């Protein structure tokens, strides 16, 4: 019996980042969906099953925090693990990041990141 792939939604307004992450996750364990902004991602989340979200912080239309809040406030999506990425746009202390993690269950990933760092976060989130 074939193992079911983990469905990962990657959200970033930079196409090269989307393609890079999709390439990293193209190892047979993941089914990768891509969205160019938070609004597009929210539409996908409302009509498809998603196991994990990896989202950029700074995006047009609906940023990563807005998407995270939508996900957490909707009963169908509230338990989806969420990784929030930023290339330095999050001006927050370690204490503030810990509070966000505790309050909203988000994990933070700084760009640029290593392949091993991303894969480790996915595995920690239960997406293996």
TrEMBL record:
Highest taxon listed in the record's lineage: Bacteria
Modified residues (4-aspartylphosphate): 56
PROSITE patterns with a match to the protein in the record: RESPONSE_REGULATORY (PS50110)
InterPro entries in UniProt: Bact_response_regulator, CheY-like_superfamily, Sig_transdc_resp-reg_receiver
Domain Response regulatory: 7-126
Biological-process GO terms, alphabetical: phosphorelay signal transduction system
SUPFAM superfamilies assigned: CheY-like (SSF52172)
Record-linked Gene3D superfamilies: 3.40.50.2300
SMART domains: REC
Record keywords: Phosphoprotein
Protein name according to UniProt: Response regulatory domain-containing protein
Organism: Candidatus Zambryskibacteria bacterium RIFOXYD2_FULL_43_10
Native organism taxonomy: Bacteria, Candidatus Zambryskiibacteriota
